[in-house]
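SAMPLE LOG
Freezer: B-3
Tube label: C17
Construct: single chain, 272 aa
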Amino acid sequence: MSLRVLPFALSLLFISSSSLNIRMAPRASIAVFGATGLTGREVTYQLLAQDVPVRALCRDPSKLVTPLGSCGEDGANKIVENDNLFKFKGDVTKLDDVEKIFETNDVTGVVISLGGKTSDVGKTMLTDGTTNVIQCMKKYDVSRIAVVTSIGTGDSSNQAPFFFKVLMGTVMRSIFEDKNNQEKLFTQGIGSDLDWTIVRPGGLTVEPPTGVINVIDGEAGSIARADVASFCIGAVLDDDWEYVRKTPCISSTGGTAWTKDRSANARQGAMA
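STRUCTURE (predicted):
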């Protein structure tokens, strides 16, 4: 009986993946954590536009929609479907969920753009989740990573406008403690030997991308999330990236004017 089964079993090895309608995970993909957030959507959209495969861990994959900045009002808020997009439902604070992103051994870079209200995600989500990502990066031999934090973290506190410093020490105290601990994982912790870039943007807007990104030493101005995404993509794809193991503060044109876009348009699609 085994002799009759063997030819059939062998024949299965030669059936093409297309005939079975199987979509195989490609090599050289970028892992995105926080892909359903406003900046993460931009990162995902722009990578796919460059034909770069994306592996995204989402608490709610239905919230991975097209971004307002790059797509405009008519094109925004549509579910992203693409042959190069691999969506996984999970929680970044659970190591097993994070490892699902890496287990095919095709990830060559990582972008972390996590966020959310502390009351929803907990006081240590950024640190705990990033720790899991670092552990998986080391296990699967991945070195390039861009991590979006904020102006005001680490040694950039003097680059934040006065009113923002007040928020950092009051209503935003918990989230900034988490952000600072997240950064320390790279500046003095388990991720220090990775090829990391900590990205500290100024006031985030959902304007169209300007294509102009200034790395600044003084008080931070505003920057479109689309431009932040472009900077992060450079950090994980460019061979000659100059900010490896650095913590650049970035803003766009317009001097040091500060704008935090909290309009209804900016919040299209709840952050996950």
